């Protein structure tokens, strides 16, 4: 286990250390909906369910599609600190990511982003569609009774 990975449980009785990064990557690849949490001006959490794009999805970065006129986007403009969370019921595990989010500029948007939208995302017909880029700093994986953290960025 790396120095930055912290096992919150007592020693796991001689079991091999949990592969936090591998588990988190697998959870992210399988997730169809994620909880996306921002903080408003009063310090109150705003949690919404967003569908991530499959394109360029990794532990380091996740892209989302939403409307510019949402509370989520307004909160990101005020403070880019956000968290995302997803749960896999089949494996009884979850991944929480803490990091930063920002709007993808028009010049950065690639045709592949639009082509990667799901049927559901396209049906939303946003007036002012935007892509959000989430960049991970910390990873938290809960697998059965084991909880581990790992820092990705300084």
Automatic annotation (TrEMBL):
Record-linked SUPFAM superfamilies: FMN-binding split barrel (SSF50475)
Pyridoxamine 5'-phosphate oxidase N-terminal domain residues: 23-118
Pfam families membership: PNPOx_N
Protein name per the record: Pyridoxamine 5'-phosphate oxidase N-terminal domain-containing protein
Organism: Schleiferilactobacillus perolens DSM 12744
């Amino acid at each position: 286990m790396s120095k930055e990975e912290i096992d919150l449980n007592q020693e796991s009785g001689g079991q091999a250390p949990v592969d936090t990064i591998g588990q988190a990557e697998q959870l992210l690849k399988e997730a169809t909906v994620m909880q996306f949490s921002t903080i408003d001006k009063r310090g109150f959490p705003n949690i919404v369910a967003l569908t991530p794009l499959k394109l360029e999805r990794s532990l380091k970065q996740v892209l989302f599609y939403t409307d510019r006129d949402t509370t989520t986007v307004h909160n990101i403009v005020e403070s880019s600190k956000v968290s995302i969370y997803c749960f896999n019921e089949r494996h009884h595990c979850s991944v929480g990511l803490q990091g930063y989010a920002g709007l993808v500029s028009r010049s950065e948007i690639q045709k592949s982003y639009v082509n990667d939208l799901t049927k559901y995302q396209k049906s939303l017909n946003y007036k002012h569609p935007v892509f959000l880029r989430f960049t991970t700093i910390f990873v938290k994986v809960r697998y059965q009774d084991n909880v581990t953290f790992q820092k990705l960025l300084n």
